[in-house]
Design goal:
Layout lengths: L3 H13 L22 E5 L2 E4 L4 E4 L14 H13 L8 H13 L5 E5 L2 H16 L3 E5 L25 E4 L4 H10 L4 E6 L15 H14 L2 E5 L13 H4 L5 E4 L10 E5 L4 H5 L11 H16 L2 H23 L3 E4 L6 E4 L6 H12 L2 E2 L14 H22 L1
Helix pairs in contact: 2-9, 3-9, 5-6, 10-12, 11-12
Bound molecules: pyridoxal-5'-phosphate.
Pyridoxal-5'-phosphate binds next to α4.
Length: about 400
């Protein structure tokens, strides 16, 4: 597979963009030269890179493409809204409709607000928790990603200690550690921010234990702290009504983004009536946040997710993919470890602390036209037909065979 155009574009990018490709799409953590760096077009579960290479895609833009690239109903809704105008002096009726839709779908939600990115609203949500309680402290899971704001970025540059002065983290599923933080900061905790399950980069995913979920619910209630569910990555992939219902969390605020509008830029935060007045006091706006096209896309996407029970489909397809992948590992004597819900699984090579073998596996997959990421969970989309999953497995069979022959 040839990536000459990708590499030439990357050289141009490196000259004019710090880091060339910054952030999560950086090629830095992949086998050099083994993956495309720039995309050209996509349809359904497949995309083409700038060198004309085609891939069956298991990343879906790192989550947003829940229905696949260029879904006709979503694109028609967004295009119709766009044709009426981009940004106005006012919101359109779509904003109200979308808030009504979310509050009808999500059991605890009495109101909704909208931003563009997940981080816009995870950051706003902790401010709401502080406004509600008048307290400074936020508890978070160690290694959980909530965005690029100073209070939570996993990066190191540009931070000062004060950015994190009131942020305290603890290991996922560790009830005693959570209890200890609530005790240590008694009367000071504004909120606990959680992802529904733990999906760190460079590590296996972990599902929450029932004891952990119960402790989150109990301790937030007991200490008058808000429970904030960061459902940015999982929302509407695991269930049609928010991921709290899958695991039993009782959030006060929840933030959605990736699957909300099938790739159109919009995020949402929902909350309870009790916190509505405080929420209205936390300033919230952005130049493009009233853009109606992503709101139209979100309304269409949510309708399809509910109408076609997309989470059930993603789970069934994910089970087919993960089971098939693990059997290939057995067939070829390559130890594979799978974690996370089947709709957004993560599979790596076992006994591979440096991730080198997992990177080689993903490089071999890419060489056979299957796009997988070595250290981030993957995303099944509703555009994957059973035949696409089977074709991907067939290609992976050849990829693993080739990898094993190289190491013989
Ligand atoms: C769980 C979670 N929270 C927050 C974010 C930040 O979202 P955004 O990149 O849209 O700001 C992400 C992005 O990957 C995420 O996965």
């Amino acid at each position: 597979m040839n990536f000459a155009n990708s590499q030439s574009l990357f050289r141009r990018a490196a000259a004019v963009i710090p880091g060339g490709i910054p952030g999560h799409t950086t090629p830095a953590a992949t086998v050099p030269g083994s993956v495309p760096y720039f995309a050209a077009e996509g349809r359904g579960c497949r995309y083409r890179d700038v060198d004309g290479n085609d891939f069956i895609d298991f990343m879906g833009g790192y989550g947003p493409l829940v229905l696949g690239y260029h879904h006709p109903e979503v694109e028609a809704a967004a295009t119709a809204a766009r044709a009426r105008g981009a940004v106005f002096n006012h919101p359109t009726s779509l904003m109200v409709e979308l808030a009504e839709k979310l509050t009808s779908l999500i059991d605890f939600a009495d109101w909704a607000v909208f931003g563009k990115n997940g981080a816009d609203l995870t950051t706003w949500s902790i401010m709401v928790a502080r406004e509600v309680t008048g307290r400074p402290k936020i508890l978070k899971i160690r290694g959980a990603y909530h965005g690029t704001a100073a209070w939570c970025t996993p990066g190191h540059g540009g931070l000062i200690p004060e950015d994190r002065a009131h942020i305290h983290d603890f290991p996922f599923n560790d009830v005693p550690a959570l209890e200890a933080l609530f005790a240590q900061h008694h009367g000071q905790v504004a909120g606990l921010i959680l992802t529904p399950f733990h999906h760190p980069a460079f590590a296996d995913s972990q599902l929450p234990t029932p004891e952990f979920v119960a402790a989150c619910n109990r301790l937030c209630q007991q200490h008058g702290a808000l429970q904030i569910l960061d459902d940015v990555r999982c929302g509407f992939r695991l269930s049609t009504d928010g991921s709290h219902s899958v695991y039993g969390y009782k959030p006060d605020l929840a933030v959605y983004c990736k699957a909300l509008a099938n790739g159109h830029p919009i995020s949402a935060c929902v909350g309870r009536t009790a916190h509505k007045a405080a929420a209205s006091r936390v300033f919230l706006t952005g130049s493009y946040w009233n853009d109606p096209a992503p709101m139209a896309a979100a309304l269409a996407t949510l309708d399809i997710i509910v109408r076609d029970n997309i989470p059930a489909r993603l789970t069934a397809l994910g089970e087919r993919f993960v089971t098939g992948f693990l059997s290939l590992g057995e067939k070829h004597g390559l130890p594979l470890v799978a974690s996370g819900p089947p709709a957004m699984p993560y599979v790596r090579v076992g006994d591979d602390p440096s991730f080198m073998r997992t990177q080689q596996l993903c490089a071999a997959a890419v060489a056979h036209g299957v796009f997988l990421h070595p250290h981030h969970n993957w995303f099944i989309s509703a555009a994957h037909a059973e035949a696409d999953i089977d074709e991907a497995l067939h290609r992976l069979d050849r990829a693993i065979h080739q990898l094993k022959s190289l190491h013989r």
